[in-house]
Amino acid sequence: MRVSISRVEKNGKITLQESGGIAIVTIHRPAAKNAMTANMWKELAALGKRIPKNEKTRVVILRGAEGLFTAGSDIKEFNRMSIDEANESFGYMEEAISTFEEIELPTVGVISGPAMGAGFELALACDLRIGTPRTKMGMPIGRLGITLSKSFVKRIVDLIGPSKMKDLVYTGRLLNPVECRDWGLVNYLLDEDTNADNYAISLANIIKEQSPASLRAAKESAAFANSRLDIPLKSTFEKSAHPVDFPEGVRAFVEKRKPNFQSR
Known about the structure:
Mean pLDDT: 91
Shape: globular
Number of domains: 1
Order of helices and strands: EEEHEHHEEHEEHHHEHHH
Helix content: 40-55%
CATH superfamily: 2-enoyl-CoA Hydratase, Chain A, domain 1
CATH topology: 2-enoyl-CoA Hydratase, Chain A, domain 1
Distance between the termini: 55 Å
Largest sheet: 7 strands, mixed
Structural class: alpha/beta
CATH class: Alpha Beta
Radius of gyration: 18 Å
Strand order of the largest sheet: 1-2-3-4-5-7-9
Low-confidence stretches: 228-237
CATH architecture: Alpha-Beta Complex
């Protein structure tokens, strides 16, 4: 087994294990619910670009350490950033997410905990998703003054449609495991007695026995079909961090109070 460890923060790291035709990427920052810093997003993108270079790899598993996935981006880090720095960080997120979305290999996400905001998007970038009794998914960005980019919105709309996408953003609610299954956000919902990581490996072993050409064609055709359904989303926002609402939303999050938004 080949193991790569990228330590990007004092208490954060991303690991890549490659063995038996399976690449397993693990996000490690459990003290912060595996919330991702800008540097972690950059490292995740770099690992994602490296994976296809190993010709023996047939399937990719994306998971979080200690029974978690990722709660998304580190909001406390945003509180120390300027608007320009925050928007740059959103660029790192999109690069990492799109990197995993565009990998030619089949990808399986183990969503064994919260997947919110950018973490939700990262989960949706996977071809298949495994849920557990601790899975929670949603896009609670309205209280942070984040204006979703078209690529972020399209991933959600492609899977669940525009009305449900608006429901998640308008209310900020988190979906429980059964709702995640019923909405089609997870392909498999495990019970308490089933080990999610073992299940993911078993699923990966089934997938890697299929024709690589068949799998690649299916993934490419699905991407083409979604592109035909592209929705012309008109938006006045070209940046994800709103110059007025984003700083207030982040400060309110850190200070554990309700935000006082002033934009109109």
